[in-house]
Specification:
Blueprint: E1 9-13, E2 18-22, E3 25-29, E4 63-66
Parallel strand pairs: 1-4
Antiparallel strand pairs: 1-2, 2-3
């Protein structure tokens, strides 16, 4: 992750797994042990500053997908 660079963050839920992508590349899969199946969930993002001066982030938009079988 670099300063002054735009990234596309995506979440894909296919009914069984939740994958997280950065710029079209999967970066991790959520552990779905005891994953709620009839609850409304809100995805969220957290920003971790690597230095004291880096205390802001701007998110242009977030794209999420849910594939229903």
């Amino acid at each position: 992750i670099f300063d002054d660079t735009f990234y596309v963050y995506e979440i894909l839920f296919d009914g069984a797994t939740v994958d997280f992508y950065v710029d079209g590349t999967v970066i991790t899969r959520l552990a779905v042990t005891n994953f709620p199946d009839y609850e409304y969930l809100t995805p969220s993002f957290e920003y971790l500053a690597g230095a004291a001066g880096a205390d802001t982030v701007t998110i242009d938009w977030i794209r999420c997908f849910q594939i229903q079988a």
